[in-house]
């Protein structure tokens, strides 16, 4: 999603990966992985049980604060009119679930306040190891006291992704967009609302070599409404790296580091997990017409649980 990174203050925790205490909410995720893929003779012969590395059911503010950094006081990399405020991410009850709410609201035509969170946790699969990242997400808007579908908004750009946000790194450590959406009904250039997964990579700062070759578009109907399950599987079998994105338990895209000369998955990571709700885009991106933006009273990203697991492959 992000195509330019400015200097950031990254909070480090000793060691690359830390285990976390589970929240009270019971986990609602299946432990089933995607079916083993035999492309390139990479059929998995055996795996250990999944080990939970991070789990947050968002029942507890203290636990949430120990897992996530709430970004504040900066604009989005791709939209100068979208400003992240650390007061925006809140815990709330929605649809009978305990969730994180990221809310985008208009302050004036050149300033929209919104939310961005990322994990302290960073991760990258070692040799013969696989990681799994899962979350359930709902996108929705409100017009006063009335709910509106996300597909009725214009100019909202939510995303669930993993990346290395160190200054001057992107896209040399890769980026995996598990879900990003562009709400564009009635767009003046005729561009439709779109949901997709995508990968970015390049050997030089701020220079992506992949274009849209790794973009996999999700059907916008019914993805634009209701709750949906999004997943990333990232594994390393004797140096052959595979990344798979999934929507509602169905594989959407699978990528190997040998399948594209510009896709060097061995150089991906370590990554943080990010959820954010961008609004609009800069002129050089030409993703939205900022004069058309319509978020109604507010547009929201509801995040119900995040799970990170790892296992060994043999």
Automatic annotation (TrEMBL):
The lineage of its organism: Bacteria, Pseudomonadati, Bacteroidota, Sphingobacteriia, Sphingobacteriales. Coiled coil: none annotated. Residues 11-314 form the GH16 domain. Belongs to the glycosyl hydrolase 16 family. Transmembrane segments: none annotated. The keyword Signal applies. Keywords: Signal. The keyword Metal-binding does not apply. InterPro entries: Beta-glucanase-like, ConA-like_dom_sf, Glycosyl_Hydrlase_16. Residues 1-22 form the signal peptide. This is Family 16 glycosylhydrolase. Pfam families: GH16_XgeA. SUPFAM superfamilies: Concanavalin A-like lectins/glucanases.
